[in-house]
Design brief:
It contains nine helices and five strands; from the N terminus they run E-E-E-E-E-H-H-H-H-H-H-H-H-H. By secondary structure, the protein is an alpha+beta fold. The protein has three domains: 60 residues, Beta Barrel (OB fold (Dihydrolipoamide Acetyltransferase, E2P)); 69 residues, 5' to 3' exonuclease, C-terminal subdomain (DNA polymerase, domain 1, Orthogonal Bundle), CATH 1.10.150.20; 55 residues, Helicase, Ruva Protein, domain 3. The chain has a five-stranded mixed beta barrel. Strand 2 and strand 3 form a beta hairpin. Helix 6 packs antiparallel against helix 7 and helix 7 packs antiparallel against helix 8. The longest helix is centred in the middle third of the chain and has 15 residues. The protein is globular. The relative contact order is 0.09.
Length: 199
């Protein structure tokens, strides 16, 4: 898997860019973002990636932040009927925090305003992410992060990361709870929880 690319930004068009990494040009599809989200043309930049393989094509999708890549992967793996193009439209059409708030509050009308997303798909996203995967509670806790202790915030971050990797909510919660006794930082909890879930 290609986790990130670091190289010279050769071209930056709406929705895609070309990165020159040691003489190899990589075309990367990205969410529509403000100018300069990936740096200026000619400068060295780092792009977080998701390598998507299908029968007829292999495509790189790029992200400026870990949050946007996690949400992209969560949509791909957990919502039926949502492919990379729709997931990219969601990231292009709404700020991540606004998207999470719409899912938490069950606001399908707001989600349906995103280009390429109809009301049925918006309702499916709310049902499958909120009710089946169980990210609602974690996103609610994240939005009220100011009231969370540092330990609770770290556990919540680790839980969201496990959900985006495809683990079931109840298994992920148990692993995070057990792992929290061994460390307090989110990355320590995540590593310990992953070891438990994969053993």
């Amino acid at each position: 898997m290609i986790t990130f690319l670091e190289g010279k930004l050769e071209a930056d068009w709406p929705g895609r860019l070309v990165l020159n990494v040691d003489g190899v040009g990589y075309e990367v599809f990205v969410p529509l973002a403000g100018d300069g989200a990936f740096g200026q043309q000619g400068q060295t930049t780092r792009v977080l990636t998701h390598f998507h393989v299908r029968e007829q094509e292999q495509t790189l999708y790029g992200f400026a932040t870990e949050d946007s890549r996690e949400l992209f992967r969560l949509l791909l793996t957990r919502v039926s009927g949502v492919g990379p193009k729709v997931a990219l439209s969601i990231l292009s059409g709404m700020a991540i925090d606004d998207f999470k708030q719409a899912v938490v509050s069950g606001d399908a009308t707001t989600l349906a305003k995103i280009k390429g997303l109809g009301k049925k798909t918006a309702e499916r996203i709310i049902l499958e992410l909120g009710d089946k995967v169980g990210v609602k509670e974690a996103w609610q806790a994240q939005s009220g992060a100011a009231s969370l202790s540092p330990d609770q915030a770290a556990q919540n971050d680790a839980l969201l990361a496990l959900l985006s990797l495809g683990f079931k909510q109840n298994e992920a919660q148990k692993a995070v709870k057990a792992a929290a006794t061994q460390g307090t930082a989110a990355d320590e909890i995540l590593r310990s929880a992953l070891r438990m879930l994969q053993s």
